[in-house]
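Today's session is about reading a structure prediction critically. Students often jump straight to the picture, but the first step is always the sequence itself: look for stretches that repeat, for charged clusters, for runs of hydrophobic residues. Only then move on to the predicted structure, which in these notes is written as discrete structure tokens rather than atom positions. Here is the chain we will use throughout the hour.
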Amino acid sequence: TCDTGDQQTTAAVHLKAAAATIVERLKDVATFEGEDAVFECRLSQETAQEAQWFLGDVPLQSNEMNEIRVQGTRHSLILRKVTLEDCGSISFKVGQHSSAA
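Below is the predicted structure for this chain, in token form.
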């Protein structure tokens, strides 16, 4: 606000949060059948944006076979007791950014 005594004007500042980017990308994982496979990536900031993991084109959810964790900026996917059918591309997407291994 600017006040000159007999006149006054007011303006507002509006900020738009920057979108999170992927700063630590996924790495390929090789393991034995029956063991767990762990994938991790890190974002530039904590975000309310929807993040999603995929096996091929299939979206993954946390369940008895897949554990999805978020700890601050670190996002993790644990594939429990992998089988040969789990071989393929794992991808992580947030906003317009993605990483695959």
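Discussion point for the tutorial: The mean pLDDT is 90.
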